[in-house]
Specification:
By secondary structure, the chain is of the alpha+beta class. The protein has six helices and nine strands.
């Protein structure tokens, strides 16, 4: 297996990575902030969009942006995932020298999860960042198990551990096994807004009246307002920090 950047192997984009998207709820890919900054992120940070390959088979992908952060938990980017994208693009365009890499996505090929591939691709990304002098590594983690408990606050969920001391959530455990520690929740990390019809299409549900709904794959509830013809989903993620310089 080897690590390459997505930019180095443009032939492995599109259909070659389709299976990496299978685990994401449809609405997660509809946020306005990532859509508005997608091209800039691809242009400014191609080195931190990496693929784990076995021959020419894409096994996993991890994507990150570079930004400035002083190491204080209180000054983490407002808005988690969305905030990190905005900060990284804005700072790059303003000439601010980064010192931190923020991992914004990591996915594994369908059928190959649970085999350590996520750790492999994250380690490869961390090594690239360290070699570029980006000592700090942070992640607004989207815990996969949290979707089973959408009524539970992230403040409570972050404290759920197993007998061995590791977290109950497998994705949090993946980061912990790489040495990462939990910092704090990231409120409004990902905000998705759409019409009622769009939300019905994204979720396969009907929303016959205004109110808050549990949706498959959602870590939090979606707020439906039929009078305004709008559904708003504000997702809380969990900030974690990896060991510096590794």
């Amino acid at each position: 297996m080897k690590i390459v950047s997505n930019a180095e192997r443009p032939d492995l984009q599109g259909p070659a990575q389709d299976s990496l998207r299978d685990g994401w709820p449809a609405f997660v890919l509809r946020g306005e902030v990532p859509r508005a900054h997608r091209d800039a992120v691809a242009e400014y940070f191609p080195r931190y969009d990496v693929l784990l390959l076995e021959d020419d088979l894409v096994l996993a992908r991890a994507t990150a942006v570079a930004l400035r952060w002083d190491g204080d938990t209180a000054t983490l980017p407002d808005g988690g995932y969305d905030g990190a994208l905005v900060a990284a693009v804005t700072e790059h365009e303003s000439g601010v020298a980064p010192d931190t890499v923020c991992v914004v996505a990591a996915t594994v090929r369908t059928g190959r999860t649970g085999s350590g591939l996520a750790g492999e691709v994250l380690t490869g990304l961390r090594e690239r960042a360290a070699s570029d002098g980006l000592a700090r590594v942070i992640v607004p983690v989207r815990p996969t198990l949290k979707a089973t408990y959408p009524l539970t606050s992230m403040e409570d969920f972050q404290r759920w551990t197993r007998a061995d001391g590791l977290h109950l959530d497998p994705w949090i455990r993946t980061h912990q096994r790489l040495g990462a520690t939990i910092l704090r929740p990231a409120p409004r990390s990902m905000v998705v807004t759409g019409t009622v019809a769009e939300w019905e299409r994204w979720t396969g549900m009907a929303f016959p009246q205004s109110g808050r709904y549990v949706v498959a794959g959602g870590l939090d509830l979606v707020e439906i307002d039929r009078e305004r013809d709008q559904g708003v989903y504000e997702e809380t993620n969990l900030w974690m920090r990896h060991p510096d310089g590794t």
